[in-house]
Amino acid sequence: MLTQRPRGTNDILPGDASRWRAVESVIHRTAARYGYGEVRTPLFEHTELFQRGVGDDTDIVEKEMYTFLDRGRRSLTLRPEGTAAVVRAYLEGGLAAGSQPVKLYYVSSPMFRYDRPQAGRYRQFHQAGVEVFGTAEPSADAEVIALAVDIFAALGLRGLEVRLNSLGCPACRAAYRDRLRDYFRPRLDQACEDCRRRFDRNPLRLLDCKVDRALAAGAPAMTEHLCDDCTRHFRAVQSYLRALGVRCAIDPGIVRGLDYYTRTVFEVVHPGLGAQSSLCGGGRYDGLVEALGGPPTSAVGFAIGMERLLLALEAEGVTLPKPAGPDVFVAAAGEATRGEAMALTARLRREGLSAETDLCGRSLKAQMKHAGRLGAAFAVVVGEEELARGAVVLRDMARGEQENVEIDRLAERIAAGRVAAGGASDGEERPEA
Ligand code: AMP
User: Fold this and answer.
1) Would the pTM of this model clear 0.85, i.e. be above it?
2) Which protein residues are within 6 Å of ligand 1, measured from CB?
3) Strand, coil or helix: what is 205?
4) Which of 135, 166, 332, 420 could be joined to 341 by an S-S link, Cβ 3.0–4.6 Å?
């Protein structure tokens, strides 16, 4: 028990963390290019926020939330998704009062859902997402979809499909719901238990049934029953996407699990991922801000599953930077110079290099072996004799060459060697030469 993590959770160990960082930095850079500002919200919120914001009929609220009473007997819930919390922050932070649109994004935010774990589905997982508030224009829907596609493209992912649908507005959806009920009513005995229960309140959810897809296959499509305004909006989104060079397929089966969507809904899927092929889901949610107590505010956004994104990168064999070894390992030639070795390591770090030294009391020979195992580009040997002359021995680990170098010129010499070899400590930052 003590040495086992809870079911459905994952550790991200250093070997993987560098892959996560590489993906996160692409998302930060892409969001910045599009002018989105980062938002970070608490891991837990008042339970009611998700009940209202995600919807009582959803799988999430019905059976997946981690809800608990705190010591003050308030009902709190670990965040199962990002949108409701970002809407709350938008309202509470006064962003609704400023100039619109407000374009926000988040990266690697932990989410919690009590679901049956399998490959690509976890109880704690991470999402990156964006939310744009204050515009009902179809150009915003198109920008958001293009941003998701750009993130995937910047990472080198291919083989993705963008699937688009419209759920209409409350007006045209009401009539469509009736048509759906007419379609499903005579087939209800073939539907699963959840679907039978949802038939009256939310027949759209029957289109999204994970148990039996065949039943929904012959159902009428929402896109055939949109009102004029929703038809215009849907066409405009597609035309902007064409202008942006984003290819997408219309898929009437995309209804998304959450109650709050209006008009545009979309998913980005990676067929290589099997059952959990959805990398990203999103859409427009023009009624949510008001439902959560704010002024009427149109909004559109998406969430990308970080774990699935990493799985897709792996499935496509996209290589992300692996953790590089340190620029330099500082070895003490003997007991007498251990203190100096530590001080020199600290100095090299201040001078912008990644530097390590021995923390295990190893012999010089064992220290050099350890430097090799760490993948250090250089090793420095701090010996009493050289130290007396203000110098150390510098060893280029790849070439096996050694030279005496003055301590004052050491950082410069190592940095120049690293630049010449085309590498640096973390593959991103390079010390100034
Ligand atoms: P959703 O918030 O359900 O619209 O999901 C958005 C994205 O988050 C999905 O496309 C998945 O990539 C990811 N996702 C959702 N649920 C899970 C889960 N339980 N484990 C891992 N990733 C998930």
Assistant:
1) yes
2) 81, 113, 115, 120-122, 125, 127, 257, 278-281, 303, 305, 307-308
3) helix
4) 332
